[in-house]
Amino acid sequence: MMKRWRFVKRLAPLMAMMVLVLAACGRSDLSTLNPQGPVAEEQFGLMKLAIGIMLIVIVAVFAISLFVIIRFRRRPGDKTIPKQVEGNHKLEIIWTVIPIIMLIILGVPTVQSVFNLAKDYSKDPEAVQVIVTSHQYWWEFEYPAYGIKTAQELIIPKGKTISITAKSADVLHSFWIPSLAGKIDTNPGANVNKMYFSAPKEGVYLGKCAELCGPSHGLMDFKVKSVDESSFDRWVAALKEPVALPSDPAIAKAFESKCLSCHAVGDLGGPAYPNLTGIGSRETVGGILVNTDDPQYSNEGSVYDNLHRWIKNPDEVKPGNQMGKIEDLTEQEIEGIAKYLSELKLNYEQ
Amino acid sequence: MDWLTTVDHKKIGILYMIAGGFFFLVGGLEAILIRVQLWKPLNNFVSADTYNELLTMHGTTMIFLAAMPLLFALMNAVIPLQIGARDVAFPFVNSLGFWTFLFGGILLNVSWFTGGAPDAGWTSYAPLAGTTYNGDHGVDYYVLGLQIAGIGTLIGGINFLVTIINMRAPGMTFMRMPMFTWAAFITSALILFAFPALAVGLAALMFDRLFDANFFDPSGGGNAVLWEHIFWIFGHPEVYILILPAFGVISEVISTFSRKRLFGYSSMVFATILIGFLGFMVWAHHMFTVGLGPVANALFSIATMLIAVPTGIKIFNWLFTMWGGSIKFTTANLFAVGFIPTFVMGGVTGVMLAAAPADFQYHDSYFVVAHFHYVIVGGLVLGIFSGLHYWWPKMFGRMLNETLGKLTFWTFFIGFHLTFFIQHFLGLLGMPRRIWTYLDGLGFNEMNMISTVGAFLMGFGTIFFLLNVVITAFKPQNAPADPWEDGRTLEWTIPSPPPEYNFAQTPLVRGYDAYWKEKTDGHKGMTPAEPIGPIHMPSPSILPFFMGFGLFIAGLGFMYAKDWGNLFGSFKSGYALGIVGLLILFGCMFLRSVIDDHGFHIEEEEILRDMGGKA
C-alpha cells in the first residue's frame, strides 16, 4: 500500500506539469486552452477536470499493460499451461465501482455547468443583444437595441454580457469563438439558438464556423473585437452616420450600380449581403485576408491590396461564395472601388 | 463463375474480404490525399470542391464499404465454425447480402466518374445535402448507393441472428459461446434495430432530392434537425456495430496467445449486452451544440459517460486475461495488445466529449477527428488486422509471414499514433474539422505536417500487409488444423481450410472453450454428436448477383430521370431504365420462389475420403 502511494506522489508533479503545459498552449486569441473569458474558463475548468481523471485511467491501464507484457511474456520453448482462471468477482466489482465514482466526480460539475451555460440573457436589459445570422460564407451581426447591422466583425464592449441569438439564412453553420466561448449551431427555420459570453479584456478574438457548410467552410472566419465602453458607443454612433459615395463620379456610378444592389454603406444600398460600412477599419477582408502593413503570409496585405484582390476575383479567395466574379468591372473601377472602400473607416478607438 | 454463384459462407467471407479490402484501399487513398492537402497552410493541391468530395467519400467508404464488410468477412469466415454449424441459416440470403453491398458500393463510387462525388460530409446534413445547395447528382449517389448497400448489411445481420440462435452445436449454450460469436450476435441485433432508421432517413432524403419532397427543407416546412436525429439514431449504434466485433476478436486473440481462458467471461457477456443497449440511448451526444436545451444535454451527457463502465470492465478483463498467462507475441497478438492502450485513449476522449459544456469547445474540431479515429482505426482497424492475421490460416490454409506481419504492425501502429495523437491538440488549439485549408500563422502548421507524415506511414503499413498476402498466396496450402497450437474454440478442430461442409460430424460441446476442454481432458478432438452420414448442402445460385445488379440499374435510372430525355411521348427514359432494373430484381425473386431447389448431398464416401486424406 505504501508503495502505491509513493507512485501517486511521483505522478502528481508530472500531472501538475501537464496542466501547466496545457494552460499555456496556443494563441491566446484562438486556443481553447488559453481562455480569455468566463464562459471559456468554465469550459476549460471542466476540460481540465476531465483530462485529469482520464490521465489517471490511462496511466493505470498503461502501467498494468506494460507490467503484464513484460512480466508474462512466453519464454522460448515454454510448454507450461498457466492456471485457467475464471474470473474474480472482487476485482470485477472494483473495476465497475471505481469508474462509476470517477464518472460521478465528472458528472456532477458537468450537469451544473450545462445549466449554468444555458442561462438566458435575451431579456436582460444589462446585456448587449446580438442577432447572429450565418450565411455561406459570412457572418451578419445585428444589434436590435441600436438598430445597426454589420458583418464579419463583432464589436463588443468589454466586460459586458453578450447575449447571442443565432440562426442561419441558408445551411447549417456553427458559431465558435474558441478563446471566449464554445460553439452553438446556427440552424435554418425555426430552431433559433441562444448563448452568452463576455470578454473582460480588450482585444481581437478569432471566430470560426465549425459546421461543414460547403466548399469555403474552412474559410468562414470572423473576428470578435472587445473595446472599452465609450469606444463601443462611438462605434455604434459612427455606424449610423451617412456615408459619402466615391468622389470620382465614374467610380461612384460603378459602385452604386454594381455594389450597392447587394451591399450597404451607411444608409445607402441593399441589406442582402455584408454591410460595408467601416470596412476599411476592420481587421480583415472577407474574414481571412488579414489587413496589415507588414504582410508575412499569402493571406495578408494592406487593406487596399486585400480589397482589390477580393473584388477582382472573390472565388479565388473563397471558392463557391455567392458574390462571384463581377464580370463587367473594369480594372480602373476595381482599383477605384478598392481605394474608396479602404478609406471607409470608422474612427471609434481613441 | 464459381465465385459469382457461391452460397458457401467461407467463400462469401473471402468475397467480403476482397471487396472490403479494395474499398479500404480506396478510402485510404482518399485519406492520403486529404492529408497531402493539409500538410501545409493555404495549400492548393486539390480544390475546395474536390476536398469536400474526398472527405465525404473517405468517411462513407471507410464506414460502410470497408469496415463493415471486413467485419462481415470475419463473421462469415468464423461464426459458423465457432458454433459448430455447417453454414449460416440462410445461405442464399447471405450471398444476396454480399452482392447488394458490392453493387451499392460500386454505385457510390461511380459518382467519381460522372461529374462529382457526394460532398456534404458522411453525415450529409440537410439542407446542405438538399437540392437547393447541392444541385448535382453527388448526394443522389450517396442516398441510393447507401440504400442498396444497407439492404445487404441488414439482411446479413438478420442472418447472423438466426444462425447464432438456431444453429449452435449440441451442448453449446449461450453461456458457452465464444466471445467473438457473442459480439457478432449483439452486433447483429444492433444492425437489426439501427439500419432501418438509416433506411428511413435515406428514403426521406431520397424523396427530398428526387421527388421534391420537403422532409428536411426548412423553406418548405421541413426540419433540418430532424435529419440529424434520424441519422444519429442510426449513426451512434453504428459505432458499436463496428467496435463490438473488434472486441470479440481481441477477446479470442488475447486468450489464445496468453494460453488462458478469458478472464470474467460472464461479465464480458454482460458488458457487451450493456454496451449494445446503451449504444441506442446516447445518439444526441452528437448534437450537444444543436440547441436541445439543458435537460436533454444533461441526460445525454450522463448516459454517454455510463458507457465507460462496461467498456472499462472489458479492458480490465483483457488485461487480467494476460495476467499470469504465457503471452506469445505473434503479429495477431501484437495487434491485439496494441489495441488495448490505443482503444483506452480513444475511450477516455469519448468520456471527455460526453461532458456537454466542454463539448461546446471540442465539437466539430480536430479533437473529435482524433477521438473517433482512435476508436475506429485504433480500435476497429487494429482489431480487423488482428483477426485477419489470426484466422488467415483457417481461411486459406496458409500462414502469413510473421516478419512482414510485424513490420506491418509497427509501421501502421507508429504511423497511426503520429497521425492522430497530435490532432487532439490541433482541435484544442482551435482548428475546426472538415476544413479544406487553414491560414498561415495560426500555429497549426507543424502539427499538420507531422500528421501527414504519420498518414504516409500507415499507408506503408498497409502496403506491407498486401505484400504479405501476395507472398503468402504463392506458398503451399499446408497450415495445420490448429496452427497456433493453443486454439481453444471449435474452428481449430477442423482442417485449414475447412471442407465445404465444415464439420464431418457435428461436435458435442461439453463446456466453455470447447476444444481447449477436450485437449486438457486428454482427448485428441471433439466427441461427435452424430454418426457420419450424407450431408445436405444448398445449391449455388446466380440470382443474388442479378438481384444486386438490378438494384444498381434501378438506382442509376431513377437518379438521372430528370436529366435524360423522353421515351415514347412524355415518359422519361430514366424511369424506364429504373423499371427495367426493378423488373430484374423482382424477376429474380419470382424465379427464386417458383424454382423448386432441394440442394444436394455430399455422400458418406466422400466425407470419409476427406477425413482419411487430411488426417
Topology summary:
The complex is a heterodimer of chains A (350) and B (615).
Chain A: H1 2-23, H2 38-71, H3 89-117, E1 128-135, E2 138-143, E3 148-151, E4 153-157, E5 162-168, E6 173-177, E7 181-186, E8 193-197, E9 203-209, E10 222-227, H4 229-240, H5 249-258, E11 264-265, E12 268-269, E13 284-285, E14 289-291, E15 300-301, H6 303-312, H7 314-317, H8 331-342
Parallel strand pairs in A: 1-5, 4-10, 14-15
Antiparallel strand pairs in A: 1-2, 2-3, 5-8, 6-7, 6-9, 9-10, 11-12, 13-14
Helix pairs in contact in A: 2-3, 5-8, 6-8
Chain B: H1 2-5, H2 9-37, H3 48-82, H4 91-110, H5 138-166, H6 179-210, H7 224-258, H8 265-279, H9 294-306, H10 308-322, H11 331-354, H12 356-362, H13 366-396, H14 402-428, H15 445-473, E1 507-508, H16 514-520, E2 527-528, E3 535-537, H17 543-560, E4 566-567, E5 571-572, H18 573-594, E6 600-602, H19 604-614
- Give the SSE order of chain A as H and E letters: HHHEEEEEEEEEEHHEEEEEHHH
Secondary structural class of chain B: mainly alpha
Please provide the ordered H/E string of secondary-structure elements of chain B: HHHHHHHHHHHHHHHEHEEHEEHEH
Number of strands of chain B: 6
- Report the largest inter-chain contact: A-B, 99 and 94 residues
Strand order of the largest sheet of chain B: 1-2
Shape of chain B: globular
Structural class of chain A: alpha+beta
